[in-house]
Amino acid sequence: MSKNVYDILKERGFVKQVTDEEAVKKAFETTKVTAYVGFDPTADSLHVGNSLGLMALAHLQKEGHRPIAIIGDGTGMIGDPSGKTEMRKMLTVEQIKENSEKIKAQINRFLKIDGKVGLAIHNATWLLDLNYVEFLRDIGKHFSVNRMLSAEAYKMRMETGLSFIEFNYQVLQAYDFLRLFKSHNCTMQLGGDDQWGNILAGVDLIRRVEGAEAEGITWPLLTTAGGQKMGKTAAGAIWLDAGKTSPYDFYQFWINVDDQDVKKCLAYYTFLPMTEIKKLAKLEGADIRKAKQVLAYEVTRITHGEEEADRAQKAARTAFGGQAQDLSGMPSSEIQLTRLKKGILAVDIFAEVGLTTSKGEARRLIQQGGAYVNQNKIESIESVINDANLDGSGLMLRAGKKRYHRLVVSD
C-alpha cells in the first residue's frame, strides 16, 4: 500500500461526502480495507455512470485493498427509489438473473475477481430467503420511520407517491452492509451521492447490532458542463455492453465531450497519473483534441480491451482524416445489392441503422442540412440512396459532424 487510497480518490474527485474523514484515512493507512459498491441489475448492461463505482473499487484494489462488487439481484426485485421521480419498472425473476450474469462479466473487466483479492457477490443469496416476521423483529426494529422519511430520496418521492415496497429498499441495503460486515469484515461502502441516506442507514445498523464502526464515502453525481447527466446522449445511455453501444460509438462519446469536462473525465475514468492529466488539461484550442483522443482511447481500452480500442481509434482516424485505414471498428451493417438497386429513401435508411431514433428525426436532420452520404449532403427528404452512391464495396452515412455508419453491400 504505497499511497493512501483515500487521498487518491479525493484528488481525482471521487469524494463528495464521507462519514468520518480521519477514520477513513487511518483505516486505509493501517489496515487492508474491504469495501463494497452495489450494482442493481435493472438493465442487461451497466452504463458509464455505473463505471464510476467500478473505477473507485479498482483504485482500492490497485493499492492493496479488497473490493466487493455486490450484484443486487435481491434488491433489484424491489428497485431503488433514489434519484427517481416514479417507481421503477418491475422486472421478472428471469430478467434479473439474465441481467445479473451479464453485469458480472462486465465487472470482471475492471476488477480481479478471484474470491480472495476481489469478490463479486449476489445479495439474493441472503435476501430472497429471509423470514419476513423474523427480519422485522431483528432488523426492522432498528429503523426510525421519521428518520427514513427525512432522507432526500424519500422526500422527493413522497410528492409523487412512494410505494411500500420501495420504502423497504433502504432497510435491505443496510442489511447488505451488515451481512458483509459480519461475513467478510467489510467496513466501508461507496456509492453515488444519491446513496448517502442508504449508506448512513447501513453504518447506523452496524453500530446498533454489532456495536462497531463502519464508514461510507460518496462521489458526486456527474453532470456535463452543459448540465446534462454524464453518459447520457440524445440517443440514450452509453452502455458498457458492446452490443448496445459499439466500441466505436463508445470511443466517439469520449472524443466529443465538452472541453471543460476533459480533465474531470480523465481523472474519473482513466488510471493516468494526475500529473499527466493536469498537463493534458492545459491544452487549449485545437490541441485539446489530443487530450480527448487520450481520454477516448484509455476509457475504451479499460472497458473493451486494447484490441477494440485500437480498432475504434483507427476507424475514427479514417472517418475524420480520410485515411485509407481499417474501418472494421466502425458501426456497420449489411445491405443487399438488389435492395440498394431499387433505391431506399434516405429518411428510411437513417432511421433503420440507428443514426436517428425515428423517421421524423431523420427528416429534421436532412432539413437542417446535417445528413450526408459519402461526404455529400442529402438535400431533400425525398432523396433516394441507391447503387449510384456506392463507393467501392459500400457507402458511408453521416449524421451531423460526428456520427457515422457504414453500409456494406452483399450479393
Can I get a quick summary?
By secondary structure, this protein is α/β, with parallel strands linked by helices. Helices cover 45% and strands 15% of the residues.
Keywords:
alpha/beta; Tyrosyl-Transfer RNA Synthetase; 411 residues; Rossmann fold; five-stranded mixed sheet; 3 domains; 15 strands; Structural Genomics Hypothetical 15.5 Kd Protein In mrcA-pckA Intergenic Region, Chain A
Question: How would you characterize the overall build of this protein?
Answer:
This protein is of the alpha/beta class and 411 residues long. It folds into three domains: 5-219, HUPs (Rossmann fold, 3-Layer(aba) Sandwich), CATH 3.40.50; 232-321, Tyrosyl-Transfer RNA Synthetase; 332-410, Structural Genomics Hypothetical 15.5 Kd Protein In mrcA-pckA Intergenic Region, Chain A (Roll). It has helices at 5-11, 21-30, 51-62, 93-110, 124-127, 132-138, 145-149, 152-160, 164-167, 169-184, 196-210, 247-255, 262-269, 274-281, 288-304, 306-321, 337-342, 346-352, 359-367, and strands at 17-18, 34-39, 66-71, 119-122, 188-192, 215-219, 232-233, 236-237, 332-336, 344-345, 371-373, 376-377, 384-385, 394-399, 403-410. The strands form four sheets. It has a six-stranded mixed sheet with strand order 1-6-5-2-3-4, sandwiched between helices. Strand 2, helix 3 (51-62) and strand 3 (66-71) form a beta-alpha-beta unit. Helix 13 packs parallel to helix 15 and helix 18 packs across helix 19. The longest helix is centred in the N-terminal third of the chain and has 18 residues, at 93-110. The protein is globular, with a radius of gyration of 24 Å. The model has no long low-confidence stretch (mean pLDDT 87).
